[in-house]
Amino acid sequence: MGSEMAFNLFSKHHQAHLINNSTANNNGTSSSSSRSDASFVVCDAVPESAQAFARKFLSQFPGANIRIVDTPDQVVLASQTIITMLPSSPQMKEVYTGERGVLSVLNNSKHLSPEQVKSTLCIDSTTLDVDVARQVAEVVTRTGAQMVDAPVSGGVHAASQSTLAFLVGGPHTSYLLSLPYLTLMGSPPKSSTAGIDAGRGLRRSW
Asked: Could you tell me which residue ranges the 6-phosphogluconate dehydrogenase NADP-binding domain spans (predicted)?
């Protein structure tokens, strides 16, 4: 996922979860502050990129709960919603099905309870082969987790302006769960319940 796209998602989600705290002072006055109950996990193949992103985010939102992890399995252990956007099919397969991939946690009852697996949502926006998208989605949903295929149209400018166009394929329930996240980064996404790869068919006819 590009930094502009991720920054929009994180910043808007952070602000949407602000909680106001009021504190009574000894002199009879009161003061208020706000904090966000949102938390974020960043994983990048280039650790320096993840660190630079976290520094930028914290410079604008001091005190935000953001952490960096090294591998996809650590992301799953710390997150309920996982958004991936990778260079292409090989990287997507590795992130999901590799030794320390997403599935290594979803398939292991020692890590997550069945309820936690069912509440896990995976959103993939990688530009990849349709067959790979379908194969990975099948093994993810077989665990009980939910997944949508959300290829995206638009460049850096669209990402910075939150006007990206997402074309979502997958079960309607999963699509509805993905909406709060995708709409923070772009216009209301088109959807299809024809299958996990239907979003790619929509993009071809866009």
From this structure: 1-187
